[in-house]
Amino acid sequence: MPIIYNEYFEKFIPELENRISEFPNQINIPNHREGRPYLAYNTGIGNVQYYTEYTPLGYGQGFNGFIVGIYIHNEDYLNKFNELSQHRNMIEQQLGKPLHWLDTGAAGRIFFYLEDDIDNKENWSSIIKFQIDNLVDIVRVFKPFINELRNRPRNSTNQNIEDTQEVGKMTNKIKNIILYGSPGVGKTYNINKLISLIEEGKSDSAIFKAIKENKKSDSVDISDIKDRIKFITFHQSFGYEDFIEGFRPNEEGNIKLQDGIFKSICDAANRDRNNNYYLVIDEINRGNISKIFGELITLIEEDKRDTLEVTLPYSKQPFRIPSNLYIIGTMNSTDKSIALIDIALRRRFTFLKMKPKADLIDYLPAREIFENLNKQIEEDYQLGHSYFMKIQNNDDLEFVLEYKIIPLLEEYYYGDDRLTEVLKLCQN
Prior knowledge:
Elements: H1 2-18, E1 38-45, E2 48-55, E3 65-73, H2 77-85, H3 88-95, E4 100-103, E5 107-115, H4 124-151, H5 166-170, E6 176-181, H6 187-199, H7 204-213, E7 229-233, H8 240-243, E8 245-249, E9 255-259, H9 261-271, E10 277-282, H10 289-293, E11 310-311, E12 318-319, E13 325-332, H11 342-345, E14 350-353, H12 364-376, H13 394-412, H14 419-427
Parallel strand pairs: 6-13, 6-14, 7-10, 10-13
Antiparallel strand pairs: 1-2, 2-3, 3-5, 4-5, 8-9, 11-12
Helix pairs in contact: 1-4, 6-7, 13-14
């Protein structure tokens, strides 16, 4: 039997290495110890491990099978096992299927199993896929709970994970984000950086700090995940039927029920729980939020993801929003319709203000005019640095001032006596 274990893991480990990028955080790939039927992966806690195994004994459960799960042993194993068990419903809902929870009296095991015999070599490819698929899911779903076990003091094992602040520091609990500010401060530009940081597994605090600092950097390339990103712009005519579902004419001229962009990306995210998906909504405040989101405005809240379900009015199908979907909006603070979204979105989104940054302007005369103008302008109407970033000489500066900045100022100060004073700064 030890020889066939070695042979199986010789095929298993290269497949795991090929899919290592699918894990939400880097896991170690241990060397297989000869004659052992398992591999154990580090979680950051010495007595808690992810593992893949073949067991002919089935832990006394009467099966021969392949295992993938979490193994808790040695010191304090029962407290850790019981604490994870408190969140069994939430964990299994996120996984989309039940786990086996087994206290053997010496260790705790939480696992999926596939009943098969290791001698059936013709099944190895499908078995390996089963183990790796489920290992990815288990690492993804258990990550916040494992992090909480690692960071919690010994005497606080009965405290609910959801009630602590440490989870928020260690995982991306914020799923709904709006970048807002005056035109030209880099809201759209920073969306790529925001998505890239989420994909890298950065914490919420690190992500928000990096976006707020808004440092000059090379363009962020996220083309490799473009299939998981959808981009739309809200406007006054955009409605529930465009966003969720509705009856629309097809190519033959018949009326047919069609999914909107939000329902489509939710379905895709539900089918692919190993990856994050992103819906980017430009000008989010320009749409009628109540009309567009309908009954789903409640479901987008982070604590309602994967748990709260509604029946859609047209298709009559149950629908829930997955936790691996991020909704990222942009909004101009100069837009007078900003007040209309306060009640609908303020509680459900986290707002990150983007501010003008003179440091991003290389041409000194342009930077001086930029700083002088913004000293005179109210904060929400200040000019964004992107208007001035490509200026390299006085000709560029004069062009930008005449055709971009002055028309914008004339709009801001229409009917205001202060316009003449502000325009003098441009002319000087």
